[in-house]
Amino acid sequence: MAAPLIQATNLCKEHRLGDTTVAALRGVSLTLETGEFIAIMGPSASGKSTLMHLLGLLDHPSAGGCLLLAGRDVMNLNPDERARVRAQEIGFIFQAFNLLGRSTAIENVELAMTYAGIPRSERRRRAAMALEKVGLGHRQHHWPGQLSGGEQQRVAIARVLAAGPGLILADEPTGALDTATGREIMALLQDLNRAGRTIILVTHDPAVAGYAQRIVRMQDGCAISDGPVVRDDGSKGMISQDLAVSEMVAS
Ligand SMILES: Nc1ncnc2c1ncn2[C@@H]1O[C@H](COP(=O)(O)OP(=O)(O)O)[C@@H](O)[C@H]1O
Ligand SMILES: [Mg+2]
Fold this sequence. Notes:
The protein is α/β, with parallel strands linked by helices.
């Protein structure tokens, strides 16, 4: 059997803040198979973003822990190797969109492909296709500042779509969007998952978490529960969009 896509064991992270230390993660373990779509929920400051940063190789654990990606130990890679794994295998979607303000939509999408090592001749074609796919074919040459929040998040999704990483980390991707726009973004993420991408989504909105198949709850730096999303009728797994998902995930 193939190794799990993610096998994180006992991840610990302390943040230094002046003279004090904040224990942001106190031994979190998480295993994820390829193709899963999980939501991480929990109150503010419970360690959700810290966990995403560690899983995305944007940060190191400070007090131990082990992280295997597809069976490979990624804790002891040198900075270049980490950057390569990040660019080729992991896509990020953030609450604040994080687009380069001085690059157009299509340039933003192309840049991620540059880091991922996709040949120049391929980049423009794939970027245009990805923007078309997220409904922004007509906005390719707009600057982020000329786009609405929802459109900027679509560019961020196109960036992931075009670069092709198997793992997508989305930290509050709908946090800055109105409900209807947030739903459109979640539908796009759901499409990516159905196409085989593995997704880890942080949200504190139960309706948004309802798009996932599994929910991990965090509290005070610990994962306190981990289980499937359960529907009203007791069945488990994927929820269809037209159901009242907020009730289903409240447990
Ligand atoms: N860069 C940082 N420096 C200092 N403290 C931090 C830093 N990032 C996060 N923290 C602290 O770590 C804890 C967990 O934060 P975070 O992972 O951002 O939680 P969440 O995403 O669940 O809101 C909080 O107490 C937060 O203040
Ligand atoms: Mg956070």
